[in-house]
Write a structure and sequence with these properties.
- With 311 residues, this protein is α+β, with helices and mostly antiparallel strands.
- The chain contains 8 helices and 15 strands.
- Strands 1, 2, 3, 4, 5 and 6 form a 6-stranded mixed sheet that branches. Strands 10, 11, 12, 13, 14 and 15 form a 6-stranded mixed sheet that branches. Strands 7-8-9 form a 3-stranded antiparallel sheet, with no helix packed on it.
- β7 and β8 form a beta hairpin.
- The chain is globular, with a radius of gyration of 22 Å.
- The structure holds zinc ion (ZN).
- The site of zinc ion has 8 residues, from loops.
Length: 311
Amino acid sequence: MFDQMCYAGGVLDRAAERRRDAGWLALRAADARSRVVPMWQDLNVLVDGTSPLRPLIVDGDAAPALMRAADVVALLGVDSDGLAWFAADLSPWPRDHVLALAEGASATDLRRVGALLDRGDAAILAHARGLLHWHRRHRFCGKCGGATEGLDGGHRRRCRDDACGAEHFPRLDPAVIMLVTRADDAGGACLLARQPRWPRGMYSTLAGFVEPGETLEEAVAREVREEVGVAVAGIRYRGSQPWPFPSSLMLGFRAQAVSGAEVAFDTEELEDARWFGRDDIRAFADQGRKLPRADSIAHWLIADWLAEDAG
Ligand SMILES: [Zn+2]
């Protein structure tokens, strides 16, 4: 089930061995058969009016020209035809110039449209977004403050100050996301919560970032304890999802409540947190409630638990 996660399942060969091959990279950057995925700031470029929604992929003579004009170019990989795919950051351009790349082009937040895209396209756009976001946030060296430059086809940056020479690699922020369940006579329940800033009526799983010096399991137990005052055991990994908004890797877990399962939440953080049985969740629409978006691992964790009822 989790192997169908949105933003995963990319079909490009990431071709890591090509990243250090400057000659190959230069040839591919000048090749009109190469494919270019443009981005503007943190927005992907899509073509409106298509079904399914399609990203703008630039090829032909426009591809090398776009790479020459881009602020940063990074190799995404090689497709099954042997063609190289690159992400190109056009962030310094006026927005109008980006939209003029194609009829119907729009600069769109991938989070808004991920579930509407073909899965392979969503994976490519997520890769481009995560990688180029990292470049834009690492223009300067975190060690000495000097300017950095991109290397290895956009998979490494190095401080230009020779005395420093610090190297910087794309970073991810690991976050745990967990469905807490309890056994009861009514067939069990799961704990869902809502934050005040979420869409009206939406209830979802608990989640939080992993802190230095803790395991994933410790992070799960800590977050659940902090957010709802419930102790958990039986922590079980279920699956993961790239979540480049801007740089998270979501690590999905199931956990069982072991304390009295009494919920005590901080109203600064959460507006509500409560136990729901499977039938409660299936009746969400009638109650003015809804589950998280279909492209999120939170949705999958809940659907995974609901499906167990079928057996
Ligand atoms: Zn430096």
